Design the sequence.
């Protein structure tokens, strides 16, 4: 049996699953998939110190580009997609992603899916406009990446972080507003981009779900909710899913 985690990162969250495996003497193999090889090596070394029985087969790749590098499994497999990353995909993208996952799953396979829940507007506003400025720094960092990777000439200080909750689409929308009229050169693209004062770059969405909306999405992707877990405050959901064999997908 195997646990395959998409976008495993540091694998800190995964230790809860591995602790449960250890307690039940279910020594499953762990297949972390991530774009960062260095992080996979660091996380793998730490996990092997903590779980001597663990067999790790790390995969370097971008799951959003497809699952061609994911090996088949002879036994049961638990696919794991935690952290609410599904919310960064638009509705059509999320449906396509889940549909491609379903196509890989066998009758004995499951998907453990994490999503962020709809909350009071005040709670969401505080989270994405935190007083410490962490989210603002994260948002502006996209400009640093463009500067580094594409020879951009953005001044992050000339862009203001804005984030708000779009109730109609049930999603946080993050923007960078130009605080002045300016022209920014991007060398690798041989282009100059003109920004008027107040014009914005739409950098990210973060969709929020109700349990009903999540069930509607997964059902459309040919997956059935077997179980659902949430904390007392209802801020986050973990859904355990399996293939809906009656689906036409």
Sequence:
């Amino acid at each position: 049996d195997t646990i395959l985690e998409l976008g495993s990162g540091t694998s800190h969250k995964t230790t809860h699953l591995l602790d449960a495996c250890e307690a039940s003497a279910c020594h499953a193999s762990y297949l972390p998939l991530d774009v960062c090889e260095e992080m996979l090596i660091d996380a793998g070394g730490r996990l092997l110190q903590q779980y001597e029985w663990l067999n790790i087969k790390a995969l370097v790749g971008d799951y959003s580009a497809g699952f061609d590098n994911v090996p088949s499994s002879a036994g049961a497999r638990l696919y794991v997609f935690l952290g609410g990353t599904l919310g960064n995909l638009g509705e059509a993208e999320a449906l396509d992603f889940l549909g491609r996952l379903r196509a890989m799953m066998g009758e004995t396979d499951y998907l453990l899916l994490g999503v962020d829940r709809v909350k009071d507007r005040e709670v969401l506003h505080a989270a994405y406009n935190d007083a410490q400025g962490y989210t603002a720094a994260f948002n502006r960092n996209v400009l640093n990446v463009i500067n580094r990777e594409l020879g951009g000439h953005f001044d992050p200080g000339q862009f203001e972080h804005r984030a708000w909750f779009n109730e109609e689409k049930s999603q946080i929308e993050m923007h960078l507003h130009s605080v002045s009229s300016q022209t920014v050169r991007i060398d690798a693209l041989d282009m100059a981009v003109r920004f008027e004062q107040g014009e914005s770059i739409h950098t990210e969405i973060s969709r929020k779900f109700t349990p009903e909306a999540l069930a509607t999405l997964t059902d459309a992707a040919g997956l059935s909710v077997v179980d659902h877990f949430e904390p007392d405050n209802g801020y986050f959901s973990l859904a355990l899913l399996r293939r809906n064999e009656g689906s036409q997908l």
